[in-house]
Amino acid sequence: MSISSSRALVAGSCTGFVLLILTGCGALSSLAPTPEPKRVPTDTILVADEDTAALDPEVARLYVLKSELLAAEDSVRRAQLLNQAMAELSALLRSQPEALRESAVRSVYGGLTAEYRRFHGYPSEPDSTLLARGQIFSVRARLFASLEQVENPLLNTEGPRPGAEVENTEIPMTSNRLVSESVTYLKDDPSKHVNRWLKRVQVYGPMIDHILAEENVPQELKYLAMIESGLTPDARSWAGAVGMWQFMASTGRRYGLTVNAWVDERRDPEKATRAAAQHLNNLHDEFGDWHLALAAYNCGTNCVRQALRRSDAETPSYWDIHESLPRETQGYVPMFIAAARLMENPDAFDLKAPDPASPLAYDYVPVHGSRLSLSTVSRLADTTRSALESLNPELRRARVPPSKERYYLRIPVGSYPRFAWNYADLPDEKKRPATTYAVRRGDTLSEIAVQFGTSTDVLRRLNGIRGSTIRPGDRLVVPVQEYASALSASDQQQPMRVQYGTSSPVRTLETIETARAGSDTESPEPESASSSSSSTAATSPTTYRVTRGDTLGEIAQRFGVTIRQLQVWNDLDGTRIRPGQRLQIRD
């Protein structure tokens, strides 16, 4: 038997699994990408220790795409095949999360994700591409498996033990055997998960509360982030969902999150929380029920719609369609309710109180310079690289991404003045911004250098190129010659700070930009209080005039009242306010 290609594809880390492509027409690239195979293509032979004579059509299709991808020489064609393969892989894993239990799926998953990072220049990571990052995924898998053994799962119980209620919630905290079993499972070994949640909620809880209030969604949704990621910003699931709120890339982009080779804002706790709140709000608008919205967040809107169509109930609830949902979604809402009970009432469940931790807080630093690494920033700010990485988890390469605009870095509170002083002393070359350039057919490195007013040596250093070979479709980092200074003298005198969980206002990016532009807007201090550059507390006024950048959540936090009180006192239906509006603040 002759093999037209000597390429042996060993995908992922699944040993003893080799895929040999036999084309019969002399080229791997001649495999047609469009037909949907019913079984393994006839020109594919699987050699393995186990019986792999038949694969699902979707899986077989991924192997065909991967073989074409590895054989393609043109970078444009490789990009097309790669995007197509990753889209089909994501669709498969989204519809069948359990598929990765099969060695054939893990194998092609590992190979395709490795090719994706290699093509786009993503850094290699310590974790295997075949492993989910974050303990929450194994916890969920075991919990959901245990729920399958519960008899009469929807049988109502008497409710939580005394002192373990979750009160005044907009989302119903149903009591049944599934919820009781979930509570028991989570509290029996809290050192593996719940204790970590109690620690992390001190850091991220005030930020999440603040953003959920701004987006006018129930505060108890913060417990969803615990069962999604364990409140871990860099969590990654088997299916490729990333971040504290576990967004797939396509959904994240739909809600304004940037995902590219340099930045993955699904890891940004603040931006991802806002995107999740908006997404959940949209799901609630569609289904009119928070339990159904949560189910759709887990398995998708089509999944819930189909389950609703199969229900005989006049107005079906989540519990009415429970058995028509995927196994994971059947355990998802019970686990959410269980997490809410445990986190709201840790003493009632004898959970150990964690050591105190400070809420998320940082100084904002607008910087230029694609060659500016976090190691350099740590020296300028007199902090550690690990501290910067924890504050800027969205950065994929531990350096400032190429951009003509300033990029806002988070640095530890109080380190702004030192950073601004040291940053001003950096050579202009290190502060020069950059952008990216897509190489076209016929381009040379020297021509691109001339076009952007730089040298081939600089381009080689910025892009890690040893020789002069570039290919059409490659994206090169190129410096920008003309740009505005990132930090001015006034910046050094007025640190831009964000602090959650305090009585002082949170300065939003819009407020920062207004201040930087020398806006004539009024001071955000209450009218009856004297303005001061210090952070001293103001006396409680009877009225407050809204200024640009204010939010209802910030104003409530500033005066020690609730958003609901402000809404009642001022006849507000939602959280929308406008500059110049006067709000009543009562004692």
What is the strand and helix layout of this fold?
Layout: E1 8-9, E2 17-21, E3 44-48, H1 57-71, H2 75-95, H3 103-120, H4 136-147, H5 177-188, H6 194-214, H7 222-229, H8 249-254, H9 269-287, H10 290-299, H11 301-309, H12 327-344, E4 361-367, H13 374-381, H14 385-391, E5 407-411, H15 416-424, H16 428-431, E6 434-438, H17 445-451, H18 456-463, E7 475-479, H19 489-493, E8 496-499, H20 509-516, E9 543-545, H21 552-559, H22 563-569, E10 582-584
Antiparallel strand pairs: 1-2, 2-3, 4-5, 4-8, 6-7, 9-10
Which features does this protein show?
single chain; 587 residues; mainly alpha; Lysozyme; Membrane-bound Lytic Murein Transglycosylase D, Chain A; 3-stranded antiparallel beta sheet; 22 helices; 7% strand; globular; disordered N terminus
Overview of the structural elements:
The N and C termini lie far apart (88 Å). The protein is built from 22 helices and 10 strands. The strands form 4 sheets. A 3-stranded antiparallel β-sheet has the order 1-2-3, with no helix packed on it. Strands 5-4-8 form a 3-stranded antiparallel β-sheet. It has helices at residues 57-71, 75-95, 103-120, 136-147, 177-188, 194-214, 222-229, 249-254, 269-287, 290-299, 301-309, 327-344, 374-381, 385-391, 416-424, 428-431, 445-451, 456-463, 489-493, 509-516, 552-559, 563-569; strands at residues 8-9, 17-21, 44-48, 361-367, 407-411, 434-438, 475-479, 496-499, 543-545, 582-584. The model is unreliable at 1-53, 121-131, 488-493 and 508-541 (pLDDT under 50). The protein is globular. A hairpin with a 7-residue loop joins β1 and β2 (17-21). α1 (57-71) packs antiparallel against α2. With 587 residues, the protein is mainly alpha-helical. The chain has 4 domains: 8-120, no CATH class; 136-349, Lysozyme, CATH 1.10.530; 361-479, Roll (Membrane-bound Lytic Murein Transglycosylase D, Chain A); 522-584, Membrane-bound Lytic Murein Transglycosylase D, Chain A (Roll), CATH 3.10.350.
